[in-house]
Amino acid sequence: MSFEIKSTAESYDVIIVGSGAGGGMASKVLSEAGLSVAVIEAGGDFDPAKDEDRTQMRFPWESPRRGSGTRIRPFGDFDAAIGGWDIEGEPYTRARGTSFDWFRSRMVGGRTNHWGRISLRFGPDDFKRASIDGLGHDWPIGYDELKPYYDKVDKLIGVFGSKEGWHNEPDGFFLPPPKPRLHELYMMKGAKKVNIPVIPSRLSVLTKPINNDRGVCFFCAQCNRACQAYADFSSGTCLLHPAMKKGKVDLFTNSMVRKVTTDDSGKATGVSFISKVDMKEYKLRSRVVVLGASACESARIMLNSKSKSHPDGIGNSSGMVGRYLHDSTGADRMGILPELMERERYNEDGVGGMHVYTPWWLDNKKLDFARGYHIEYWGGMGMPSYGVGFSMDTMRKYLKDEFGNPSPNGGYGEGLKKDIRRIQGSTLGMSGRGESIPQYSNYCEIDPNVVDKYGIPVLRFHYQWTEHEIKQAKHMHDTFEEILTNAGAILLGNKPGPESKYGLATPGRIIHEVGTTRMGNDPATSVLNSNCQAHDCDNLFVVDAGPFVSQADKNPTWTILALSWRTSDYIVSELKKKNI
Amino acid sequence: MNRRENLKLLFTGALASGFLLTNCSPEEKQLTYSPQISGGTKGGRTEEEKIIDQKLLSETFLTEEEKKKLEVLVDIIIPADEESPAATEVGVVDFIEFMMKDYPGYQTPMRGGLMWLDHYGEDHFGKVFLELDDSQKLEIIEAIAWPDKASTENEGGVKFFNMLRNLTATGYFTTEPGFKYLGYVGNTPNVWNGVPDHIMKAHGFELPEVYKDVYLKPEERGELAQWDDEGNIIRKG
Q1: Tell me, what's the ipTM?
Q2: Residue B78 to residues A414, B19, B183: CA-CA distances in angstroms?
C-alpha cells in the first residue's frame, strides 16, 4: 500500500524515516519479524520496471539535452536519482571559509538509485584505526560482530567478486565477476609494472540469479539509470517494495519529517512531518523510531527535535550530533592511449561500472599520511552522450595524420569528423577514493537564520580537510601518473599542485558522508551505543551512515546494510524483552 | 508481459530481441531518424522536470538570422560524406537552440561570436557573414578553426569556434546517424564474455591465469547461485 497522506489515528510498532539502504533494510527485517512498519519518504515512489519510470536503455536523442546533467539530475538526464546538489526550496549553508556539498535524492530508494554499486566490506583494521595510528577513535564493535551480517547481505542482495584472502579486504559470498574490458587490461598491465595490484571489482550486480524475483545483468552499463530487471541493488527494488508486498509496511511518500516527537519522560512517540502534497503537518505515532534519512538529514532531524527533556535536540546531550562529519577523499586523472585509437568496434558496455579495481595496497607506516585509498578505473567504448566530440581543440594533436605527424588541434570538415571517430574510446582514467580522519571540528549544525520551504531549519556545514587528506591526494596523483604512463597512455591535463590541494575533491563530493551520529561506549563522546540506539532515548535508533565512527576507503553502502540489519535484529529482541 | 515471464526469458537466454527487456512493444521501440526535440526527455520525469522542459521548448533564443548563420557553420564543421549526412540534416541547429536555453552560460558567447563573424566580414570584405561568398566564408573559418596557429587578434573568434565545434560535434554524434558513423554497437541486451579473442591477441593480452576459472561463464547465467560454507560458489563442471 502506498499513501500520499494519511490521518494520524493509527499507530505503528516502528516508524522508519527514509527508504535508502538503511531504511530499506530496516523495513524488511522489522516487518518480517511481524512488526507493523511505516516508512516515511521525502520523495515520490519509484520503480524502474514501470515503463513510465524507465530511463534505462534510452538513447541520447531521447533527451533534448542529449543526456547532459541538470540541476535535478546532475549526473545526467537519464540518471535515476532525483534531487541533486541544489534542491529547489531545500537550501543548506556553509560556514565562512569552509566547504561542503550535499547530494540528496528525494525518492524511494534514496541514493541507492545513483551509486556505483561498489560493495566493499570494511576489514578488521577499518574498525580499529585509532589503535593502529593513534588518530580518531576506534569503533565500539569490530569486524567479527558485523561479519555474519555482511555474509547475509551478500546472499540476500548479491555481489560479484573474487576471493583474494587479503586481511583487510574480507572475502564474501561472491558471484562470478565479469572479465576485464580492453582498457582495464591496459590498466592491469601498467599497474603490474609498478607492483600495484588490480583485482576483479566487487559490485552488487547479479551475474547469476540469487532468487526468482530479480533478473540477471544483461550488460548495458547503466546501473545508475536503475535496472528494470532488478539486476542491481537498489533499496526500493530489493528491500522496501518486496517488504511491502508481504504486507505490514505502509509507505508515506512526499512526506518531509520535521522532528521526532517525545513524551514528558523523553521517550520518542513518533514523528511529525509535512506533506508536500497539501503542505500540512501530520503526526504519526509509534513505539520505536528509526532514522535512516542519511547521515546529515538524520542529524538535522535530531537537532530539530528539541523538547523539555531534550533541550539540545533528541539524543544530543553529548553535543555530538552533527560532529565528526566526514566524507571520502577523491581525486581523478585521465589519459589517452594510442593503442586504443581507431579500435575495432564491439559491444564493450559490460556492467554499470568498473570490472577491476585496486584495493589499498600500501603500509601507511612508510608514508607521510594516514589511511589508504582504493582506485577505480574507467574508460572504454561506452555509449556516446552529451560531451562526445568535445575538446578536439586540445586533443586532436594526439591523433597522427596520414604521414604520421600529429594532427593540428581544432579544425573542421570531413577530416575532423573522421578524427572524432578515430579518437572514440581511447581515453581512460582512474579515481582514488580514500579514508579521511574524522574531526570534531568538521560538523553540521542548525543554521539559526535559514529555513527550507517547509519551514524546517536547515543545516549549516563546517568542513576543512587536514594535511592527511591533502597528502593522500598528492600520493594518488603520483600513483595515477605511474599507472597511466606504464599502461602506455599520454597524460591529459596537468597534475594539480598544492594550490588546489592536489586536486582533492570538495568535502561531500564523493557522497560518502558519515559520522554525524556516531556510536561509542561513552555517552559523553558519542550519540549512539554499539547497537545504534540513542544513549539518551531508548526507543530511537539510527540506521544510515551516521553511526560510522570512521569511514574506511570503502564505499559505505554494504556497511550501512549490515549495520541496519544488526540494529533491526536488536530492536526486535529488545521489543520482545519489553525493554523498549 | 509479467515480471516472471520476463525473467524466464532472461534465464533462457532470449536476449536477442531488445524489446523483451524493456516492457514495451516493438512499435514503441521504433526510433525516429531525426532526434525528437519536442516533448522533452522521456522516462521517469518529475512534474518539475516536465515543466522545465516545456518552458525551455516554448522559448526561442536564436533569431532567424542567427539560425541561418549556424546552418552554414555547422555544415562546414560536419559536412555530409559518402557514409553519413551533414549536421543540419540531423537537427544540430535545433539542438544548439535548446542548449542555449538549458545552459544559459552559452548565450552571450554564442550571440557575440556570431556577431564577431559579421564584424570580421565587414572589416575584411566589406560585407556581413551571410553575404560573403563561400571562399570568403572559409577564409574566416580558416582564421579561427586552428587554435595553435591562429593569430592572437582572432582569439575571441577561436574561442567561439571551439565552443561551436563542441556543440556541433556533440549534437551530431548523439543522433542515430551519428551513432552509426561512430560504429557504437552497445546499449542493447547482451552477454559480456570479455574482449573478443582476436582483439586480445592483437593487443598482446591474455587473461590472468589465476582468474580464468573465477570469471563469469555465459552458460552459468541461468543457474541459481549457491555457495559452500566457505563462500565458494558452487559451479557445475
Answers
A1: 0.95
A2: 7, 33, 17
